[in-house]
Amino acid sequence: MRALAVPLTSAPRLPGSTTLPKPFRPLRSCIWALACAIAAIAQHAAARQNLLQNPSFENGATGYSTQYSTGPVSAPGRSTVGTNPSAWNPGWPTCTDHTSPGDKMLLVDGIYLSKFWSQTVNVQPNTAYSFRFWSLTLDLAHRHPPYVGVGFRDIATGLTNAAATQLTSAADCVWREFETGWESQSTTQVEVYMYDLESAPDGNDLAVDDVVFEPCTKVPVILSSPPSVVRRSTGQSLTLTVSATAPGGAPLTYQWRRNANALTDGPRTTGSQTSSLTITPVMRQDRGVYDCQVSSTCATRTSGPSTLVVVVRLGSADPHAPPGDQPFRVLNAFARFLARETHEGSGGSGRDDPVAGTLEGVAAPDVQEDAQALFIGAH
Question: How many structural domains compose the chain?
Answer without folding.
Answer: 3
